[in-house]
Design brief:
heterodimer; A: mainly beta; 22-stranded antiparallel barrel; 5-stranded mixed sheet; 58 strands; elongated; disordered N terminus; B: mainly alpha; two-stranded antiparallel ribbon; globular
Chain lengths: 1129, 472
């Protein structure tokens, strides 16, 4: 600790010269991180003792039975030679919550057996002190006529001697076990014998003697390969995986404060892109797995919670700390088992279950603060006044009186930075409590959590209470049952994060005039009809006081979510089991929004304002039944077979009722008299059949195939059913006898191919719908959607090639994947000529290709001095290309975006601004444009016809990054652990729609400070044109297209676990205090709040995949710092 | 083992027997067009939908007034920058093909035409429909009115008279020459005038008189003077004694009115937005009982105000002045139920228009000093409190022409006639370039600006098959 403070103390003063910690350049930040890293490179012992406690009450049992009992009720496993332990001895024991050492001492203290505990393994070995004779060697009986003696020592990967390891002469039953020091001596047939070294939990190793008499053997832990990966409808050993699946475990997910689990995924896994577009508490992030393969349909992956696929899940209803692991199916071969819903990848969330052993209780709580990650440098009042004066002058008028005092430079006048007024330092806190436990025949996990997050913008808040009950038990020896239920209640006070017209608080704070003050002199809110009136007079956008908008307009939502399920599993034989699952997701939400008549609205002054009120009640009922049978058998330990067949039916019903006010001249929501809209109901259903076969030959050659058949209510009469087949295979090269590398422990080549579907379209997308078209009192109807009997899912066929490599006894593992995915029959809302009566028509048209590479490197507990270092680096690339659109259609144009064959979906399509007219000569030589005065923008004549027309637009960027990366590190030293995650994206652009206002040259709103560099006779070499009147060409120019590349310190945390000796006294098994932060800094050239933007979250553009990357006043994300405590006993 | 496998397959089989019909779901809260239009009641609903098309915001529901009045010298926008300047751009002739108002007008006109085409396509196969003939007449009248608006706004436009099963069929169709569109309009109106009755079968429904009046206007626009006179003379109508009695809620669908788009306030989605749109910013409390917004759109110009002759009773019926001295459009002011939910109908055709058109047509046929044209013109003038014109005031055909255009401006201000009158009489360029905008600098008006741009979205969507209008 002392060293740490010194280390910090030395370096910090250098940086105080800089404005604040958050404004360091990258180099300084990196060096700061390295110092912290270096602080942990000090000598000390590693303490990772087991703290599980044992309760036992046994009378007159044999030692064998006792060992069985401990193994069944705890995580401990025993390793012993039969001859070292008197197994038939009868013992009795009665202990409560005792540590294993004490229990074992009671049993073995005066016997010829002693013990040695290494993590979860208990070695029972001969106690040389207590035995009379060591000469009697029980292995002698098995000895063959030996002529060659070999001795040596066996170590584990950390260099510790491995007692109890088995040393076998291959092809015989001749074996010995290593002693407490890991030593062994064996006599074998001849100098060419082969020895096989094995030990539970370690990779077996064969060594050809070739005359050697002394051997040093290192066995590597096999955990990663024994690990099971959840793959949908079952699990599979990671070593035998033929697909591309990424896994994130609880500890990595929870290494920083997160409101919902997808935030915790950001940057952690190759090919999984999490975009946090809004910091509004209770909002969710966008998840893209391997790019965007669709234009109109849903782009979010399917989320499956404990086997329940939910298309409309409220992600926020899942408490992240209840999650055990998340497995992401990325390639088609793994995702296709989810058929018509698998095309965007599948996220499998597995919640925690109770573990065998005594009762375990954990308590975790953190509390902290959040602040907006950055603010935008806006014009202050004086700059604003000068700009407006110039603009009005250029229009041939004088600025209104309001600006006069500023123009003559009277100091100390009102100068409001509206961002300071709406942003605040906001508290965040989370508490979760879990109780879990299990016996041989049952286990349980119960949790309760409370999360509360105030937004960094005034008036926003999110609160959630979660409960979870996960219970599994054996009814009989053959019949198992399980059940889970997770009720969640949440409330959300949302401030509008829409655009200016929707009174978006952030957008209006950027636009509001700094010459006005948010509060009156008496401290009351300045309901600023003055501000709006003056805006009208000078032709500005009239916006209400953003503070009033944030505080007085309310939008409150409360929601209940119940996600639960139960299963019965019957083992018909050792190889065949049958499982029946019933799951349900019910949610109901109430929304109540109100804007009193005492606060103005965009272009509506307070005195003209009516209250706006809206109430709605939404209900969603989703349930499914699923039956599967699994057959698993190993023939001669050579042919391993697993076969699953199943069927499911899922349906979801939704209904909405809403009300708007009938009478609304009120300033209080209680005064509103509502009129109710008719209830709107909606339903979809899906019938599925599925089957999968996994086969491997000696764990070496693995093939797998699956097929699913889906029938969906959403699709056209002629196209309701579809097939989704896959095939995949892997070759574990390291299992071959010719493979003898000592460095490489795992080498696997994988290949997979499959077809997945995307059914993410409206429930009645195939049916031509009619809507109300009333005329006065008369009831009428008219078409709203166009017919398409052939509407079907998008089909994505994906090829994936991968390599898994394990090096240096599992210290290093590397995975690389190449994928190529072609999506056919895109569900495309094709813009059709509106003389058809429709403006768009939903079709299966066109093709998109996504291809890319993914690399993940894991460094697992490498020792750097006395520091243990684990690290993950992942890099993914994705190239998105449109291959085909509608018939005779080579592009779709939408205001600022183009989707064109040969280009990525939704590229920006803009004029090219090449400068500002500085001389008459430039004007004379320029292509014709309505504005050609000195100080006007010059645009490039792309088609060379001498005029600037709509044909002079070109592609100026897109929202698809060239590559994304994540770099996560954990350093452990003594009881300290330090973790950070750096994440970023490079090579993509953002269309900064906020610039329509803050870089508008008519002075429609307050501006970004960089527009102070506008053209004038005194400043001819300006970036921005002369203020005043302008046609809108520049708003559609590359002036607003910015580089979005960024590098972000996403997470940092430091943890300290209290020493065990200390915990003993207060009956705790562990106690950790931690300090954790998110989004501490972002390095980017982007001038907006957050380079993670998406038009999918704003109201300006409709929710279309073809118009991505459009930033229009989204709620900025926060940097968060919390301090927490984690206890368990 | 085999028994067990058979058991598993059997169990799965049982569960699977629930199938096909579970995924055959029809919409619960909506109708589908594939099983609609089968009964007289459903056809009636579709015809109501045809009328509803006129209420769409791209038509009389909102945007026509910007294209037909704000564009002209009659009115102006208080803020030329609100809503991104799309209104101001129209007012000041600086708009581009991406202008949202123009696009919505185009889209909503065709949405309305589609509703007409569906009715006309489906109505024959429904038997026992007593209203059939009148419904066909009403639908043809509305289709003709919509095409007439389209063709005057945009020039050549795609002419569609069939129901498209598949909107993709529309990709093959470009712009139809204006003459063919007019031929269809005349055909529809001629048929409508045969099928329709003298009395409407619904509030605000189309009548024989309305279709003759519109037919007369079409012919007048085309310069078919004789046909115009014939059609207009078929209209039987009256002038109300007081000009004022044409406007205001109690006077809706008056005897003088020939066709008006119906609106109804009360929070049922049937209200008109004019009261809020046409109230100057900050004057809501003063003019519309403080209910809802005051957009400051379509404000009368000083030029219009000053043009009225002394003693013209119509000036103060048409134009009001707020306490802050801002002129406002008075014909549509009433206290709305809530924001953008007013009661005011929009008068498309009234008998005064017919009288003035007939005067204009007769004068085009030949100037007759103190002839029938003078009588007609003076009827309108006298009602407005103005003295009669005689051949000594209007000495020749040309001066009579000018007098009719001016009379129409005063009589029909803010009823969506001015812009088309200026174009029909060939005065648009001269008048507009002489017009001093009170809002901002008016760009020079050229011949090309007399048509609106074909929306960029349509040029883009059809890959150029729909060609842009020159000058945009």
């Amino acid at each position: 600790m002392k060293n740490k403070t010194n280390g910090k103390g030395k370096k910090i003063p250098n940086k105080k010269s800089s404005v604040s910690f958050l404004k360091f350049d990258l180099k300084m930040k990196m060096s700061f991180l390295l110092i912290i890293v270096a602080l942990f490179s000090m000598k000390a012992n590693d303490v990772t003792a087991q703290r599980t406690k044992i309760s036992l009450k046994l009378d007159n049992v044999t030692v064998t039975q006792l060992i069985d009992k401990i193994e069944n009720t705890s995580d401990y496993r025993f390793v012993y030679k039969i001859e070292d332990v008197e197994l038939k001895r009868v013992v009795s024991i009665n202990v409560k919550n005792e540590r294993i050492e004490k229990v074992l001492n009671k049993i073995f203290s005066v016997t010829a057996t002693t013990f040695n505990i290494n993590d979860k393994l208990v070695y029972l070995i001969e106690n040389k002190k207590n035995i009379k004779s060591t000469k009697d060697n029980p292995t002698a009986a098995l000895k063959t006529a030996a002529s060659f003696r070999v001795s040596g020592k066996v170590f584990d990967a950390n260099g510790n001697p491995l007692p109890g390891a088995n040393v076998l002469e291959k092809g015989t039953r001749n074996s010995v076990t290593t002693d407490v020091d890991g030593k062994f001596t064996i006599e074998v047939a001849d100098a060419k014998s082969i020895l096989v070294f094995s030990f539970i939990g370690f990779e077996a190793q064969e060594i050809v003697l070739n005359g050697k008499t002394e051997l040093t053997v290192t066995l590597t832990e096999n955990t990663s390969n024994l690990e099971e990966v959840v793959i949908g409808y079952g699990s599979q050993a990671k070593a035998k995986l033929t697909n591309s699946v990424s896994t994130l475990k609880s500890e990595d997910l929870l290494s920083s404060p997160i409101a919902s689990f997808e935030e915790g995924l950001a940057g952690q896994l190759a090919g999984v892109d999490v975009v946090q577009t809004s910091g509004n508490p209770g909002s969710s992030s966008d998840i893209n797995i391997r790019g965007v393969g669709t234009i109109t349909a849903n782009v979010q992956p399917l989320i499956v919670i404990d086997g329940f696929p939910s298309e409309n899940l409220n992600i926020n209803s899942i408490n992240p700390s209840d999650i055990e692991r998340i497995d992401i199916l990325k390639d088609a071969a793994s995702a296709a088992i989810y058929g018509s819903r698998g095309a965007n990848g599948v996220i499998l969330v597995t919640t925690k279950k109770g573990k065998m052993g005594g009762f375990k209780f954990t308590f975790d709580s953190y509390t902290g603060v959040q602040e907006v990650a950055n603010t935008i440098d806006l014009q202050d009042s004086y700059e604003r006044a000068r700009f407006v004066a110039q603009a009005t002058l250029n229009r041939g008028k004088a600025p209104i009186a309001l600006y006069q005092p500023y123009l003559i430079g009277i100091p100390g006048l009102t100068n409001t930075n509206w961002q300071d007024e709406i942003f605040r330092i906001a508290p965040i806190q989370n508490t979760s409590i879990t109780a879990s436990g299990g016996t041989e025949h049952s286990n349980y996990f119960v949790s309760g959590g409370y999360f509360s997050q105030d937004g960094t913008v005034l008036g926003s808040k999110y609160e959630r209470v979660n409960f979870r009950f996960n219970i599994n038990f054996d009814i009989t020896k053959k019949l198992k049952a399980g059940f889970n239920l997770a009720p969640t209640y949440s409330t959300r006070n949302k401030v509008s994060d829409a655009d200016h017209k929707g009174d978006g608080v952030v957008m209006t704070a950027l636009m509001a005039n700094p010459l006005f003050s948010p509060y009156n002199s008496d401290g009351s809110l300045n309901l600023s009809s003055d501000m709006m009136q003056s805006a009208v007079e000078e032709g500005q956008a009239p916006v209400e006081n953003p503070v009033a908008l944030a505080l007085l307009n309310t939008d409150k939502r409360t929601q209940w979510d119940f996600l639960g399920g139960g299963f019965l599993e019957y083992n018909l034989s050792d190889h065949l089991s049958f499982k029946s699952y019933l799951g349900a997701d019910y949610s109901s939400s109430d929304r109540n929004s109100f804007s009193p008549n005492t606060v103005g609205s965009y272009s509506v002054l307070v005195e003209n304002k009516q209250a706006n009120a809206y109430k709605s009640y939404d209900e969603r009922k989703n349930w499914m039944i699923e039956n599967t049978a699994t057959y698993e058998k190993s023939f001669n330990r050579t042919h391993n077979l697993k076969f699953i067949i199943g069927q499911s039916y899922q349906t979801e019903e939704m209904n909405t009722t809403g009300s708007s006010p009938l009478v609304a001249q009120v300033n209080d929501v209680d005064g509103v008299i509502y009129t109710e809209f008719p209830k709107f109901e909606d339903k979809w259903s899906l019938i599925s059949y599925l089957s999968r076969l996994n086969y491997d030959y000696k764990d070496k050659y693995i093939i797998s195939g699956s097929v699913r058949r889906d029938g969906s209510s959403r699709f056209g009469e002629n196209t309701k059913w579809g097939w989704f087949p896959t095939v995949s295979g892997a070759w574990r090269v390291n299992k071959e006898s010719f493979f003898k590398s000592k460095t490489i422990n795992e080498l696997k080549a994988r290949a997979s191919w499959g077809i997945t579907g995307n059914n993410g379209i409206p429930n009645y997308g195939a049916i031509p719908l009619l809507g109300a078209a009333n005329y006065g009192d008369l009831e009428g109807s008219a078409p709203i959607t166009s017919p398409n009997q052939n509407l079907s899912w998008e089909e994505t066929s994906t090829l994936d090639l991968g390599i898994d490599l394990g090096l240096f006894d599992g210290k290093l593992s590397f995975t690389a994947d190449y994928y190529n995915a072609n999506t056919n029959g895109l569900l495309l809302d094709v813009p059709v000529p509106s003389h058809s009566g429709y403006t768009t028509s939903l079709r299966n048209i066109g093709k998109v290709n996504n291809s890319g590479f993914e690399f993940a490197l894991n460094i697992n507990k490498v020792k750097l001095g006395y520091v243990k270092w684990s690290s993950t680096i992942n890099i993914s690339t994705n190239k998105n290309e449109v291959l085909e659109l509608g018939p005779d259609q080579d592009r779709i144009l939408e205001s600022y975006h183009i989707t064109e064959i040969g280009q990525p979906i939704g590229s920006y399509y803009t004029y090219r601004k090449i400068g500002v007219f500085q001389t008459q000569e430039q004007i004379n030589n320029a292509p014709t444009h309505p504005e050609m005065r000195l100080g006007d923008y010059i645009f490039a004549d792309i088609d060379g016809d001498g005029k600037i027309t709509s044909n002079d637009r070109e592609i100026s960027g897109d929202f698809f990054p060239d590559y994304t990366f994540g770099f996560s590190n954990t350093f452990k030293y003594k009881n300290f652990s330090f973790n950070f995650l750096i994440q970023g994206k490079q090579g993509y652009e953002i269309f900064n729609g906020t610039s329509f206002f803050i870089r508008n040259l008519e002075g429609w709103s307050n501006g970004h400070s960089d527009i102070n560099n506008y053209y004038s006779a005194e400043n001819p070499e300006a970036t921005y044109a002369s203020p005043g009147k302008h046609v809108k060409t520049y708003e559609q120019s590359d002036l607003f297209v910015e580089d979005g590349s960024y590098i972000r310190l996403r997470k940092v945390s430091i943890k300290y676990s209290l020493p065990e000796t200390f915990l003993e006294n207060i009956s705790l098994t562990s106690a950790t205090i931690y300090l954790s932060a998110t989004n501490l800094f972002t390095i980017t050239n982007y001038s907006g709040f957050n380079p993670e933007v998406s038009s999918r979250n704003n109201s300006f553009n409709s929710s279309q995949t073809t118009t991505p990357g459009f930033d229009y006043g989204a709620y900025p994300i926060a940097k968060t710092i919390v301090m927490g405590l984690n206890l368990s006993f | 083992m085999y028994k067990q496998i058979i058991l598993v397959i059997a169990v799965i089989g049982i569960f699977s027997s629930c199938s096909e019909e579970k995924i055959q779901l029809s919409p619960i809260s909506q109708e589908s067009s594939s099983n609609f239009y089968k009964t007289p009641e459903q056809i009636e609903q579709a015809v109501v939908g045809v009328y509803d098309g006129l209420q769409l915001s791209g038509q009389y529901g909102k945007y026509f007034i910007y294209l037909m009045e704000v564009r002209s010298d009659n009115s102006r926008q208080q803020s030329t920058t609100s809503s991104g300047g799309i209104y101001g751009d129209l007012d000041l002739f600086r708009m581009e093909a991406t202008n949202n108002i123009v696009e919505l007008a185009w889209n909503d006109c065709y949405k309305g035409i589609q509703r007409c085409n569906i009715v006309l396509n489906r109505i024959e196969s429904v038997s026992n429909n007593p209203k059939k003939n009148v419904q066909i007449g009403e639908t043809k009248f509305i289709r003709a009115l919509t095409y007439f608006n389209l063709v005057r706004l945009f020039g050549d436009v795609p002419l569609i008279t069939a129901e498209y099963d598949d909107p993709f069929e529309a990709f093959n169709l470009g712009r139809t020459p204006k003459a063919e569109v007019y031929a269809q309009i005349i055909k529809d109106l001629t048929e409508a005038s045969q099928l329709l009755e003298n009395e409407a079968i619904r509030a605000g429904g189309a009548t024989k008189n309305a279709s003759y009046a519109l037919l007369g206007k079409v012919h007048l626009t085309l310069g078919n003077t004789n046909e115009a006179i014939t059609a207009l003379k078929n209209v039987s109508g009256v002038l109300l004694p007081n000009y004022l009695d044409n406007f205001g809620i109690p006077n809706e669908n008056s005897d003088e009115s020939l066709f008006e788009v119906q609106f109804k306030k009360g929070g049922i989605g049937e209200g008109s937005p004019y009261a809020n749109l046409f109230t100057p910013s900050g004057a809501a409390a003063e003019l519309i009982g403080g209910v809802g917004s005051a957009a400051g759109d379509n404000l009368p110009t000083q030029d219009l105000y000053d043009s009225y002759q002394v003693g013209d009773l119509r000036r103060d019926v048409t134009i009001g002045k707020t306490s802050k001295g801002v002129y406002y459009t008075k014909k549509y002011l009433d206290k709305p139920f809530k924001d953008l939910d007013g009661d005011n109908n929009f008068i498309v055709l009234r008998y005064a228009d017919v009288v003035l058109m007939l005067a204009e047509a007769l004068n085009e046929q030949g100037y007759v000093a103190n002839g029938e044209a003078f009588t007609l013109l003076n009827k309108i003038r006298n009602r407005a409190g103005l003295s009669s014109f005689t051949a000594s005031n209007l000495e020749n055909q040309n001066s009579f022409r000018t007098a009719v255009v001016n009379e129409r401006r005063w009589e029909l201000a803010f009823e969506n006639h001015r812009w088309f009158d200026l174009i029909r009489t060939g005065k648009a360029i001269e008048v507009m370039n002489a017009h001093k905008s009170e809002t901002g600098v008016l760009n020079t008006v050229t011949n090309e600006k007399l048509l609106f741009p074909i929306p960029q979205s349509q040029v883009d969507a059809t890959n150029g098959k729909i060609t842009p209008n020159p000058g945009y």
